[in-house]
Amino acid sequence: MRRNIVSWCVVFLFAALTSLVHGDVFSYKAVSTTAITATELKEHVRYLASDELAGRAAGTEGSQIARNYIAALFAEWGLRPMGENGSYFLPFSFLGRLRLGEGNYLELTLPDRQRRIFVPGRDFLPLALSASGEVEGEIVFAGYGISAPEKNYDDYANIDVRGKIVLALQGMPANDVSFAQESNFPTKLRVAREKGAKALILVSGPLSPFEDEPVPFWNEPAMRDAGILGITVKRAFAEALFYLESVQRQIDETKKPFSFNLDNVYVRLRVNLQRERLDDANVVGLIEGSDPQLKNEFVVIGAHYDHIGTSIRGGQKQIFNGADDNASGTSGLLELAQYFAANRERIKRSLLFIAFGAEEIGLIGSRHFVDNPIVPLDRVVAMVNLDMIGRLRNDTLFVLGTASSPVWRDFISDVNSQFNFVLRDSPEAFGSSDHFAFYNKGIPVLFFFTGMHENYHHPSDDWDTLNYEGMEKIVQMVAAVVERIANMPERPQFQRTPQPVERPAAPVRVSTGIVPDYSWDGEGVKLMGVRPGSPAEKAGLRAGDIIVEVAGKQIRNLYDYMDALNSAEPNKPVNFVILRNGQKMTVTVVPEPMRRSPE
Which of 212, 262, 383, 520 lies 20 to 30 Å from 31 when distance is taken between CA atoms? Predict the structure, then answer.
């Protein structure tokens, strides 16, 4: 990738100085003008979205380089450091991806007392939602591990798996998609657990469209395990016990369960999954307002600097550079910081610039900030968020959060008279970025966004795909918005927004309006909040509640919750058991039909 001389200087300095102790900053002049320009926006994006930063995944070296870059510029422009020990950094930690710990073990004892030992990684792998622990006992074959009596199919109908280890096929009988919900790993784990099994072993049958390989971990938010040991194995494990292909063929052709005990066969299984705790940080700098009284109130300007890192696909390493998501918003944040640092006399309230870490894995950085604020939250009058502002098309700009204050709509319309954007809202995206953490604390928010596109979360989201002239115009509008908020005689009043239309990640018929806390690693589903006017709010659910049971089904993680919700019917009451401040209570939620947003 070619760079001009200034960019090469930036890279050289970072290469020499990124080994500094966490919290140190260094000074260089990457750009020369205090105006908001497309040229400078491009320079920031080209660096932040370069291969050197390897996708800026939270907790990685690339993420650390990015925040050092931001802090260095804050220092150059004279923002006051608001982090720990006189630095710009507010550190936090979070649970990272799973890894295979020591001592994973699988042993099969056959009727003739012959023992076979299988190698972790090669012959078997734990599922991402597996519990850790050790079990041993008899094994029973349970077809596809599906229990759907309402569909006239139940692999568990004529067998008792209590205290035993279940062996089952991956997928669904004859690839019948009517069993799609019942065939996923979380549901099969839950069903085996509820039936009393100690563990679930899944195998890809010869007639299934799956490779004969253990299933590798998939990228999961940190969440509670399924409460049962679960692994996938190669076919050699099952073929040591019976003719796997003929058994699968019988089930597929008859569409009837064929489950049986395996006499005098014993399994010993040990699973050890480790989820490492990783370190990251928000980058925070302050520009003090000019008014002796109003400078004690704050306008937060935020953007997340992290992205999703790298992956191996087809044997090749791919870097997800995240130019639009969210090097674009971070570059806008930097240009605003430089602009207002040179024009401090224009603002009466103080401006708090925050580059958030770990947004991609559940708004962890912004939630850490609002839960551990460095300024009183009741003095934060508004939060302005920039996320994915690099794809302006047809002058159409999304400004979300306008319903979070009764003054915003006329306010934004008036500012826009200088810029003539085609303004749109996108209710289904309202809770998808860092502003939502502030909204949940009763702070008015505005979220600037140019919409989804085909490069979102793909390696093709590179610096040369962005509309920098469009970004310049957007950031200039945001500067006008921030200046007017900073100088308002009265702070904007907060109000709850109407319930947005939902675009679910999975095909469900009903909605409750909960907003899960994806960073929660305890048992149950913890709520980051509830959508205004939703069934959850009407039932009295609120942020911090932990759902542990729905309709009599234990809820250990978000998959259990979605599975339970899939059985609910619109407008029919469902009992939720929740934990609130350590106390168990039951509330009645009346799910409503899922309201779909137009495609």
Answer: 383
Q: How far is CA 439 from the centre of its chain?
A: 18
What DSSP letter does each residue of 18-81 carry, written as one string? TTSPTT----------SS--HHHHHHHHHHHTSGGGTT-BTTSHHHHHHHHHHHHHHHHHTPEE
Which of helix, strand or coil describes residue 86?
helix
Written as one letter, the residue type at 298 is F
Taking the whole predicted model, whether its pTM rises above 0.85 is answered as no
- Take residue 137 and report the two structure tokens written for it: 């006992």
Question: Looking up tokens 């006008």, which residue turns up?
Answer: 480
Buried b (16+ CB within 10 A) or exposed e, 469-483: ebbbbbbbbbbebbb
Helix (H, G, I), strand (E, B) or coil at 233: strand
N-term to C-term CA, the chain = 37
Kindly write down the DSSP assignment for every residue of 446-481, as one continuous string. Answer: EEEE----TTTTSTT--GGGS-HHHHHHHHHHHHHH
Strands 153-154, 147-148: pairing is antiparallel
Instruction: Answer whether 540's CB lies under 8 Å from 451's CB.
Output: no
Q: Which amino acid is at 595?
A: R
3-state secondary structure 542-584: CCCCEEEEECCEECCCHHHHHHHHHCCCCCCCEEEEEEECCEE
Instruction: Tell me whether strands 115-118 and 309-313 are parallel, antiparallel or unpaired.
Output: unpaired
For residue 100, list its beta bridge partners: 273
Dump strand ranges (E) for 114-195. 115-118, 124-126, 133-141, 147-148, 153-154, 165-169
Length of the chain: 599
What structural domains does the chain harbor? 5-96+276-487 (3.40.630.10), 103-271 (3.50.30.30), 510-593 (2.30.42.10)
